[in-house]
Amino acid sequence: MKTNTFPKSKLLVSLIIVSALTLVGCSAAVPEPPPTATLKPTFTPTATASSGTAEDGTPITESQTGATPTAPANSETDLEEGNLLTSNPEVIASMVDDFANKKTEFPRDLNPEQYSAFIDEMNNYVGRKSIWVETGDGNVLYYDIKQNKMVSVPGTYEQNRDLIEQNQIELFVKIETDPETGNIQFVNSEGELVTSPNSADVDWNLVVDASNYKNGPIDFPNAFKSENSDAWYDKIIGGVSPHEIVQKLKQAFMPGILMDDIVCKIVQEQNGWKQYPCINIMFIKADKDGNPLYGIRTMVGGGPNIFVGEEGGEIDTSTTGVVELRDSDDIRKLETGSVYYVGAPINQDIVWQEANKSDIDALQGVSPESNKYTNISSENMPDDGNIVIAGAVLIKKK
């Protein structure tokens, strides 16, 4: 993976502060970041082809396709143009609108302040969403970002709008790469800098499914409690089974980063509203060359169970191997900040209906992107709201 660097800037302080403010629990709450937390932006966007208008900080023209990465110029003119870009919300908003509507690619020549402003505007474009539902019994449930669980209050959404909207969650996450190792860096829910230890050589565009799982892109752990390990993967990924439901629940695996050890307890409708615990996985969006661009915060829960293993190791696929997501203690066996290949049924509608026997359709603030797992890897920017995925397998990358 190609990693570039740009020169240090006094604007970097603002990037880490803004990043820290967006990462509290599963949400965009505003913490008091520790004074020692320092994010040193080292990821310099590279030039890519685009038919957009050529302005500093905007996607370049077709004639510039293939240009080598360069740091922002230091001329007075370029400085004024850069200041205009970050000080004029309409310019940033126009750029994000073009990107969201696939008129341009992600701008690759942004300095740290511009990058921060662009990701902020992406969150503005999608809309920072709170998660809530009116239960039909005179109450409304909403996700409280400080308690990391749903809270019930009497009345309707409109009657509790101010309270509920204090719990908005940001979808997009700012990332950088460590200049020495090339590993992904981000700010966690404690306002601390996290360097993902095994993320430097990840193919962030990788999707492992029935078409390629036997070709070795993932060194799948031995499913030692299964009658036959290969047959287990044939079943869950290839859909090899006489049972139609198994065929419909074929899984795909994509790389993501476990952001923290927080369990986000939202709800599912299952003859009443019942708790549905999730963990925070950040999927990395990358360009066609594999260069990481930004993170997408995703809540991953069970589908209905979650099994955990490590590449080249073993995975217990019996009932004793199921990982419970009741509270933080249950997931501390996982390594926060590490890359995991996340396996989940591609057709999320089926896993909710047939496996979980519940649904989250009535939850407000949840994106329709959740209907298909591999939508996360598509070129399109997610349309609206928070993404909730019913997963099944987590395999830690070597």
List the helices and strands and how they pair.
Blueprint (H helix, E strand, L loop, with lengths): L11 H10 L54 H12 L1 H12 L11 H15 L5 E3 L4 E6 L4 E6 L6 H4 L7 E2 L2 E2 L6 E4 L5 E3 L26 E2 L5 H8 L7 H5 L2 E19 L3 E14 L5 E19 L3 E2 L12 H4 L7 E7 L2 H9 L30 E10 L2
Parallel strand pairs: 8-12, 11-14
Antiparallel strand pairs: 1-2, 2-3, 4-11, 5-6, 6-7, 9-10, 9-13, 10-11, 13-14
Helix pairs in contact: 3-4
How many domain units? Answer: 3
Please state the CA-atom Rg, rounded to the nearest Å.
21 Å
Globally, the shape reads globular
Structural class by secondary-structure content: alpha+beta
- Mean pLDDT comes to 80
Please work out how many helical segments DSSP would assign: 9
Q: Tell me the series of helices and strands, N- to C-terminal.
A: HHHHEEEHEEEEEHHEEEEHEHE
User: What is the first-to-last residue Cα distance?
Assistant: 17 Å
Q: List low-confidence stretches.
A: 1-25, 27-38, 40-78
Q: Order of strands in the sheet with the most strands?
A: 9-10-11-14-13
The proportion of residues forming helix, as a percent range, comes to: 10-25%
- Biggest β-sheet, characterized? 5 strands, mixed, barrel
How much of the sequence is in beta strands? 15-25%
The count of strands amounts to 14
